[in-house]
Each structure stands twice: as structure tokens, then as C-alpha cells.
Amino acid sequence: MSDNHASDIQSRTTFVRSVMIGLAMTTVGTAMNVVQSTAHAESVIDHARIASTLVIQDATPSTTAPPIAPATAPTTAPLTTAPLTTTPSTKPPPTDAPTPAATEPSTAANPSTESRGAENAPADEEITPKLEEAVRRGFEYLRRQQKGDGSFGQGRYGEHIGVTSLSAIALMADGNVPGRGDFADCVHKAMEFVLDHSTETGLLVSDDTHGPMYGHGFATLFLGEIYGMNADDDRVRDALVRAVQLIVGSQNDEGGWRYNPVPNDADISVTICEVMALRSARNAGIKVPKSTIDDAIRYVRQCQNTDGGFRYMKDMGGSAWPRTAAGIASLFYAGVHEDQSIERGLDYLVKNAFPKQGALGGTMSQAHYYYGHYYAVQAMYLAGGERWKVWWPAVRDEILNRQNADGSWSDGQAGDAYGTAMALIVLQMPKRYLPIFQR
Known about the structure:
Blueprint lengths: L2 H56 L16 E2 L52 H17 L15 H12 L11 H13 L15 H18 L4 H16 L18 H16 L6 H13 L18 H13 L2 E2 L2 H14 L15 H15 L1 H16 L15 H12 L12
Antiparallel strand pairs: 1-2
């Protein structure tokens, strides 16, 4: 073998070795990158798991009020957003107190009326063509009844801020909001009426209001739903924050509310108005003191009788189905779930207020009929499961059969605008457009 040939073989061998070493280094580098990427991904996942755990722990409410009867320990859970009982604060005075800051509303608290998600979409069998036609006729009736100043109401409840707010909520339950929907103008005018009657103390009150805290509670609920669906209106937010502060400041030592914004006495009927208003405001991102809700839960529990029904006040009165429905709804909206007080109350409702055994059958009291079903349908909806599946078609058909030829529903106490608004809210519960009714 010549020296030149040997040199050529050595050069080629060196080249091959260099190539092989390069390939090996590339393979090792790639493997290291994969390992590093995998480690990074696992780190991200671990951080996400930790964050998720913290969020869940932070969102778990607690109650200190004991049950009024032997019961299993209550389980509390949030509804749509963080529960009411997660914002500790001291109770502010009822008037002239600084406006508290509002947290930024979350996406969940501001649902779009175009997209509610699969969980909040009504089942096909829940909404029927007959129901939709009845709702449309009811809407047209309300449009005809709205006054030039945006208010609703008749007789001693004329231009009533509570009836006005309930009528607007009924329209919103089909997705009508200011600037969007066939009845957007009606909702907008009602909103302007409520805002025009927002006082410096935070009280939402009109001239024809009897027992102003009823109207204030319904009006605060209305503003909470408006703000929850459109958080860009500073006027709504300012009025809502002051309204919430007045509710907090007028709670009495027992934990409830009464007709006037002073902390003297309480009844369960006014109390549910305020609890539901606070839930709506909290869903929209407005801060609500934890102590306020804890005290409200304690008061509502103390109003339950041994038969499962609820009495009007803590120390007086027998059970009745309308206020029992209100009591159950109060506990649900305060964040209490899977509790024996609720189960006993639901059993009482089934026994004493199940549709078809009631108004059309002649055994149910006509007093507070729509008020009772307004809260009963919410209680059964929030209970869910078989209770809702059985209750809903029965109450739907009963309410549909009570509609008048002009599209209204009659209420001999508070007027037909009120009866119509309440009936429409009941009938549209499965639509779940309103943030307060979203799961």
C-alpha cells in the first residue's frame, strides 16, 4: 500500500468519525431538549394544580349558624361565581358612608345573552311553543302598561319601583337588555326610572312605594342583573354599590330585614328580597360582607317550624307555602346546599303547594299566589334533579292556564302588571338568561 493511499484512508476515517460524533451530539441535544420541555410542562401542570386548589379553597363558603332542628352538618357551595360569604368586612352605617370598591366582574358573572353554554341551555321539553307564545303575549301586555316615565304598576302600586323592576326582569329573562332585543326600549326606560329614584342614602324608592325595603330589594336585584350583563355602565354600578351598602347597613341584630331601612325588626319575606339582591350584586363583582350573609343564614334558620315550613317572623306565626318557598330560596342564594333545613322545606312545598293540587284544584290559598310560585320555582330549580323534573311541567302548565285574553295574569292584591311580571319570570326560569339563574 502506498503512502498516498494510506493517507487517503486515514482522512476518510477521520471524516466518518467526525460525522458520527456530530450526529451523536445532535441526538443527545435533542433528547435533552425533550427532557427539559417535559419537565417544564410538568412544572406548569403542577403550578396549575396548585392554583386550582387555592381557588377552590378560597371559593368554599362557610356558615356558623347551627340548624334549628337535628340535622346533618350543612354543606355550602357557590352557585355561579364565588359565594357571598367570601368577602369579610365590617358592617357600614346605613347612610353617608363611603362607597366600597367593586371587584372586577368575572366572565362567568357577565354571561352573554347569545351564548349561555350547554349547562345553561334549556332542555327541549322545558320550553314549548305554547309557552313561547304566552310569553310573547305577556311581553306585549307589559309594553302597553309601561308609563311614559318608564314605570309599571296599577292602583296603590302605581309607578312602583318594585313592580317596575320585576317587570323589567321579566323582559330580561328572554335576553332583552338596553340596546338589544325586541323589548330593549322597555328595559332601558325602566332602568332610567330606577336610576332617577336612587337617593343619596342609596335607597331606591318611588313615591308610591309601601314598605320601601321590598321595592329596594327588587330594584337592587334589577340593577345587579343589568350590571351583570353589561358592566360598562358607571351609573348603574354607582347606584348598585350604594344600594348594597344600604342593605348591609339596615340589617338588624337578628340577621334579617323589615319594611323600612332601619335595623329594628325583621321578617322572612323582606329578608329574601335583600338576600337575593346581595347575591345578584356579588355575582356582578360587588363586594358583600361575609358577616352579613352569615347573620342572614342564622335568621332564616330560626324561622323554620318543626313541620319543615317557615313562619313569617322568628318568634311568631305558623307555616305557609309562599314564605317557605322564600326561606328555601334564601338559603340557596346565601350559599347553603344539601342541608336538612332545605330538604324539610322542599318536602313541605311538595305536600302543600304542588301545582294541580292548588289554585286550579281549589285547595291552595290565592293569597300571594304568584309571589309564592316565584320563589317556589327558584327553590325547585336550585334543588335540581327529580324535584325540578317533576315540579317544572306541573307549574308551567298551571301558570299557562291562568293567562288572560289580553296577555296578562291577574293579581288581586298588587295588580296585573305585578302578576304578569311574576308569571313571566316563573315561565322563563329554564331559559337561564339572567345571571342570577345561571348554574
